[in-house]
Write a structure and sequence with these properties.
Helix 7 crosses helix 11 and helix 10 crosses helix 18. The chain has 622 residues and is α+β, with helices and mostly antiparallel strands. It is globular. The strands form four sheets. Strands 1, 3, 5, 6, 7, 9 and 10 form a seven-stranded mixed sheet that branches. Strands 2-4-8 form a three-stranded antiparallel sheet. It contains 18 helices and 15 strands. Strand 13 and strand 14 form a beta hairpin. The longest helix is centred in the last third of the chain and has 38 residues. Among the domains are: 30 residues; 148 residues, no CATH class. The structure holds 2-acetamido-2-deoxy-beta-D-glucopyranose (7 copies). One 2-acetamido-2-deoxy-beta-D-glucopyranose binds next to loops.
């Protein structure tokens, strides 16, 4: 027993010295490492044909300068890319991602005619079908106006704010297109980029549109009543034509493409189905027109005067209200399918591939508030010169064309980091935030996690400098790229990753150093030091501040429970949706959102809720 205790204490003593030595070494050189330029650039260039060989003992030489806030912004933008829920939770995008839609991919459009100019294509048929099929209402329901944010039609094929009339419905068609080659010149705009808001979600489009107008000397046609985003699209496509731009990709509920040119060799029409309405299919007559002209008792506002109905009118309403009840169930299911199709991409729209080598972002060009709910690409610092620079960068990358297979899959790499670190950080935080007494079990339980982390990288004896050890080596293990870093964008993303992981590793080591001495004294003297509470407090702030500043969606947003089969874990969105259109600037929060005073906008609740068709029926907005 005695012997055992002594050997434990000796081992821990040695360990402590090793850990402390190491940390001194790192802290001593930390500042120099992160700002120093490569020591011998020609040696680096000679080492690999174009791409440097990044090893455990030289990687820090290649890390470019970037602050932690810019790093988390890059990190979190990459993780949210092409993901439905994260794009709505972090709605204000400030980046352009080069994207490829592979040959053979199917895309959909519902409308009144086969497009001849640029048009919107949905990646999900549920999305197009729900947009295109605007079933008429029967009975009393036919008098209600569809609610939603007032505004113009957005997809050219969908009147918004008003129920469709017979004319709209007469010739709706559902089209399916197939990519006949790799469409390798798309720009994907991140965040809730189809939100039709003025709180920044549309800035990537607005900036392109403004710069293009000037560059191509286009007329001032914002005033002629066209939808803003239709104008943006027309300008972007005009600008992109000589560059071979296929179009842009945005998120609404599900991802959508604005394809610039249907006449080119890019897509073929594989299906053209005239849409059949459930009421027609079931053989019902058209809804009775309830109007003054037809002899119905309506007041000034078009409200039905129930007391003045004739018996015949009452009978008609009763019959049609019954039909409406059945049909609105069908309609709600149709809309719910659209929501489900959107949520199916919470973890990614995997048919679209990103080539991160040519990522063009506003991040690290000027100060951009780190809060993805409250930032803007077109902030004060984004001068006209900087905007021109960004558009020039986009032109340069479009000349090359994209090939996702040549790119490091950064999202995969960063997902791996979050999958590992998020539970570790939350577990440590939970122990340090215990409701009970701050006693030795806090130190023991915490170091069970942190010591196991640090010891993976600490050698007990110095074998030689031939192999990596220690905190810097820990960092390398997590950030070692598995494809050559070729472009400035690669280095931007990689440097951001290094910065983020460095912060995490530092905090884990810091917590370990604070609490290992406590464990040591428990084992040696059967008691903790008088500093225990203070050390736990310091460790707690370090971990909780880190969790806060990382801004990882996983650390803050969760579904309330495992949803049933007929439910979906619902993340509110900012564009047109079956749940209605939520204006971020309004105080009247839609389902699952609340108004955030400090940001002066609606944000998404951190408890995501399961919803079913019943929520749509109650909502009446679909
Ligand atoms: C840099 O590296 C090259 C290639 O290894 C070598 O020839 C040169 O002497 C080095 N220069 C310095 C200043 O160390
Ligand atoms: C569309 O919006 C413009 C300007 O915002 C407006 O002038 C026009 O009347 C609107 N059109 C419809 C059909 O609401
Ligand atoms: C990001 O980088 C830019 C340019 O280097 C800098 O001006 C800005 O202060 C940095 N931080 C943030 C949060 O934007
Ligand atoms: C530490 O872990 C033990 C064993 O799992 C548990 O009983 C105890 O409550 C934990 N203490 C704290 C503060 O987490
Ligand atoms: C480790 O040992 C090697 C010789 O084996 C020596 O060159 C090196 O300086 C030592 N490193 C430290 C940190 O003591
Ligand atoms: C970030 O911007 C600064 C200039 O403001 C530049 O020196 C640095 O290399 C950039 N970092 C990355 C990773 O591109
Ligand atoms: C450690 O101290 C506690 C009281 O603080 C005592 O109950 C326990 O027996 C001691 N353990 C040993 C191994 O001395």
């Amino acid at each position: 027993m005695n012997f055992h205790r002594r050997s434990v204490s000796v081992t821990i003593g040695v360990l402590l010295i090793v850990v402390l030595c190491f940390c001194w070494k790192i802290f001593g050189s930390y500042g120099a490492i992160s700002t120093e330029l490569p020591r011998n650039v020609s040696a680096i260039k000679a080492a690999g044909a174009g791409a440097p060989v990044i090893r455990w003992d030289n990687y820090e030489e290649f890390v470019r300068d970037i602050d932690f806030e810019n790093s988390t912004a890059v990190f979190n933008s990459i993780r949210a890319a092409l993901r439905q829920s994260p794009s709505d939770i972090h709605p204000v995008g400030v980046s352009y991602f080069p994207a490829v839609i592979p040959k053979g991919t199917l895309m959909y459009h519902a409308g009144s005619k086969v497009p001849t100019t640029f048009e919107w294509l949905a990646m999900d048929h549920e999305f197009s079908y729900s947009f295109g099929l605007r079933s008429p209402s029967y009975g009393r329901k036919s008098l209600e106006r569809r609610r939603g944010r007032p505004g113009n039609g957005t997809h050219g094929d969908r009147p918004k704010g008003t129920p469709p009339n017979e004319h709209d419905r007469s010739s709706q068609i559902m089209l399916t297109y197939r990519a006949v080659r790799d469409l390798n010149k798309f720009l994907y705009l991140d965040g809730a980029s189809a939100a039709k808001t003025d709180s920044g979600e549309m800035d990537t489009q607005l900036m392109l549109s403004n710069v293009i107008k000037k560059k191509l000397n286009l007329p001032d046609d914002d005033e002629n009543g066209r939808m803003a985003e239709r104008l943006y699209a027309s300008r972007i496509c005009k600008w992109g034509k000589p560059l071979g731009l296929d179009g842009i990709i945005r998120v609404e509920v599900g991802f959508e493409v604005i394809l610039c040119d249907f006449a080119a060799d890019n897509v073929e029409l594989v299906s053209n189905i005239e849409m059949v309405y459930p009421n027609q299919y079931l053989g019902l007559p058209s809804p009775t027109v309830i109007s003054k002209e037809e002899g119905w008792p309506l007041d000034e506002d078009g409200k039905l005067l129930e007391d003045h109905l004739t018996d015949d009118q009452k009978a008609i309403l009763e019959r049609e209200d019954g039909w409406e009840q059945v049909l609105s169930g069908f309609n709600a299911a149709k809309s719910f399918n659209w929501l489900r199709a959107g949520a199916a991409h919470d973890h990614g729209e995997h048919r679209i591939h990103l080539d991160y080598r040519h990522f063009v972002s506003g991040i690290n060009r000027t100060y951009i508030t780190p809060d993805p709910n409250n930032r803007r690409l077109l902030s004060d610092g984004m001068t006209w010169e900087k905007q021109l620079e960004m558009v020039n960068d986009l032109e340069k990358v479009l000349e090359v064309g994209f090939d996702a297979t040549q790119s490091m899959d950064w999202q995969l790499a960063l997902d791996e980091l979050v999958t590992k670190f998020a539970p570790l950080l939350k577990s440590i935080s939970n122990i340090l935030n215990t409701d009970g007494d701050i006693n030795e079990s806090v130190a023991i339980n915490t170091t069970a996690l942190t010591l196991n982390f640090c010891l993976r990288f600490e050698a007990t004896t110095n074998t030689s400098d031939q192999f990596g050890t220690g905190k810097n080596f820990a960092l390398y293990q997590y950030v070692s790229p598995y494809q050559d870093l070729k472009t400035d964008a690669d280095f931007l993303i990689w440097s951001s990753t290094v910065k983020v992981v460095r912060e995490i590793v530092d905090v884990i080591y810091q917590v370990n150093e604070l609490l290992v001495p406590e464990v040591h004294s428990i084992l040696r003297d059967n008691k903790t030091s008088s500093d225990l509470a203070e050390h736990v407090g310091t460790a707690r702030s370090a971990v909780d501040d880190l969790i806060e500043s990382l801004g990882w969606i996983e650390l803050n947003y969760r579904c309330e429970r495992q949803c049933n089969w007929d439910e979906v874990c619902y993340t509110p969105s900012w564009g047109p949706s079956p749940m209605g259109m939520t204006d971020p600037g309004s105080h009247d929060g839609g389902f699952g959102t609340h108004f955030d005073e400090s940001r002066q906008r609606l944000v998404i609740d951190s408890d995501l809720q399961c919803i079913s068709v019943n929520n749509l029926l109650a909502n009446h907005k679909f």
